[in-house]
């Protein structure tokens, strides 16, 4: 089975499983399943957004949680002032994420490597302390959201409506990611990651491509933040913390950096593993850390990337054994 067929059938099975989660929750009388998988979907969208610049563009952003928190606070502040208009919240989220992403990107993309990482982290920390200082919106304690976003007849206060909204947005994010990375835009982005000097010599304005990818990534993550606020009914500075950015990076690397579906697999794997370990011991982090290291060392392209490389590994084994593939 070639890589494309593996990817296709795995995607079909994953989507079918996600569609059946509400049915399972109803039959098994486990409403928590919808809430938990909704969280997986939200972080899957955030991981897809980061993978666009990290996996395909080679830009390690350690401040991506800024946009997750920004989307959450748009919902929280709007609800605090009595507005539950989801379309307005979405418009503000997209606009703010795009503007802040463009401004921070213009500064960050002047650097590479560790400097880029530290600048993105610095911007996220700056906004973190900004929201901590907003005492009228809860300050360090955060802000409760009394009313969820309303998109006409669609009420995100309903767990089922929120679940399917998150699932649709996840699928659209996957489609967007697939189309972008397989188009001229994605080829230039990946070429700049490998050798930016050569791409510039060929006449490509690589900085523009990278900035556009960065802005698209920020907007996607902001939309994930909007859903996350509706899921938790809360907006807090903790959503912008560097630890959340680190968690999203782990999801991307764990699932398969530079693959379209890998970030979703990483989000699912990390969050499910966390839940299982939490049920076993209160010292679950001591177990989770070595497990992540083990996966990264044994599967350099992540879990999904390891699965896609099955045919290549099989061919190498056959050649090593002296057989014809």
UniProtKB/TrEMBL annotation:
Cell location: Cell membrane
Domain of life from the UniProt record: Bacteria
Residue stretches spanning the membrane: 35-57, 64-81, 87-107, 114-134, 161-181, 209-228, 248-272, 284-304
Keyword set includes 4Fe-4S: no
Principal subcellular localization: membrane
PANTHER family to which the protein is assigned, alphabetical: ABC TRANSPORTER ATP-BINDING PROTEIN, HIGH-AFFINITY BRANCHED-CHAIN AMINO ACID TRANSPORT SYSTEM PERMEASE
Name assigned to this protein: Branched-chain amino acid ABC transporter permease
Sections of the chain in a coiled coil: none
Taxonomic lineage of the native organism: Bacteria, Pseudomonadati, Pseudomonadota, Betaproteobacteria, Burkholderiales
Keywords of this entry: Cell membrane, Membrane, Transmembrane, Transmembrane helix
InterPro entries (alphabetical): ABC_transp_permease, LivM-like
Bilayer topology term: Multi-pass membrane protein
């Amino acid at each position: 089975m070639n890589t494309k067929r593996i990817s296709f059938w795995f995607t079909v099975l994953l989507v079918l499983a996600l569609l059946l989660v509400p049915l399972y929750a109803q039959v098994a009388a486990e409403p928590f399943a919808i809430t938990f998988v909704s969280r997986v979907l939200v972080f899957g969208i955030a991981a897809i957004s980061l993978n666009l610049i990290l996996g395909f563009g080679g830009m390690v952003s350690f401040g991506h949680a800024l946009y997750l928190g920004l989307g959450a606070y748009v919902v929280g502040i709007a609800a605090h002032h009595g507005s539950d208009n989801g379309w307005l919240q979405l418009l503000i989220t997209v606009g703010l994420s795009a503007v802040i992403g463009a401004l921070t990107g213009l500064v960050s993309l002047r650097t590479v490597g560790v400097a880029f990482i530290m600048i993105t982290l610095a911007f996220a920390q700056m906004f973190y302390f900004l929201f901590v200082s907003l005492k009228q919106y809860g300050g360090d304690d955060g802000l409760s959201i009394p009313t969820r976003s309303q998109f006409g007849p669609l009420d995100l206060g309903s767990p089922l409506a929120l679940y399917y909204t998150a699932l649709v947005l996840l699928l659209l994010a996957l489609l967007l990611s697939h189309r972008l990375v397989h188009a001229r835009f994605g080829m230039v982005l990946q070429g700049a990651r490998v050798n930016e000097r050569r791409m510039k010599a060929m006449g490509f304005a690589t900085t523009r491509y990278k900035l556009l990818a960065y802005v698209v990534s920020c907007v996607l993550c902001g939309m994930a933040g909007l859903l996350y606020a509706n899921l938790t009914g809360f907006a807090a500075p903790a959503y912008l913390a560097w630890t959340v950015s680190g968690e999203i990076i782990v999801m991307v690397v764990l699932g398969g950096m530079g693959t379209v579906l890998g970030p979703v697999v990483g989000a699912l794997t990390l969050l499910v593993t966390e839940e299982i370990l939490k049920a076993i011991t209160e010292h679950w982090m001591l177990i989770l850390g070595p497990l992540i290291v083990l996966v990264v060392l044994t599967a350099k392209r992540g879990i999904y990337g390891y699965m896609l490389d099955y045919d290549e590994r099989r061919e190498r084994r056959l050649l090593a054994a002296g057989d014809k593939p």
